[in-house]
């Protein structure tokens, strides 16, 4: 476990290939000090959360908001549909759309815990900076791409990240400096080779921006029996274009996306409100209890009652260990 005191702005930091390695060690030391227990930890810095895990975890399904995800130590596997994205401390992960993913910590131990951070994006900030950088024409020329991608975590990105996390030591500086550093991080991401993929979801009239609208519509009305034609009309696309670009961004069709939303929300309802499977299934839009049980079992790997019992036992075990 790294316990040395970080110095994010040291002048004696080496240059060249070792620079990023040293900076990752500094970032790991900061996160290690700020996270005494396993789990996600919100911070005083808006939209910044830290994470820690002392052992490999089972996959966790969730709706992932647009975010910049960095690991200072350990590695993680993220699944979108049938696609697998694995990243470690040498890479970052960007999620540019609200996507139903499955995440799993795959490299962690008490001696070398998984240490990471997540910085959520505000689409308005992406749009404003994308316009300043004149990315609109570049985005319009390109076809829609997946709303998730990895990239090299270079010293150029690590530098503002270190300065941002270091603000946790001086919370009185957060209101003035955190927005500036967050903007710098976003700038670096948009200027990266795949930065246009992040800009896609926020720039007006791009296909990905319309898919973002469709995702928002599905998220708000997932309980309703929506027709694809209605979604296409709402976002001003043809049905064929909606299918093409929606699958390009999310790796699934609109109706498959809606099904995942329903199943994940039903799980949340059963866990947080202690209702039975029949009630949860009905509340998320299922008219047939047998269909709900069948699709839930296929998606989560076991029937609703067994799955919820297992999750509660895991939660109890985590609280006991911490």
UniProtKB/TrEMBL annotation:
SMART domains: HTH_ARAC (SM00342). It comes from the Bacteria. The keyword Repeat does not apply. The keyword Transcription applies. Pfam families: AraC_N, HTH_18. InterPro entries: Homeodomain-like_sf (IPR009057), HTH_AraC (IPR018060), Tscrpt_reg_HTH_AraC_N (IPR009594). Coiled coil: none annotated. Residues 212-310 form the HTH araC/xylS-type domain. Keywords: Transcription, Transcription regulation. This is AraC family transcriptional regulator. It comes from Variovorax ureilyticus.
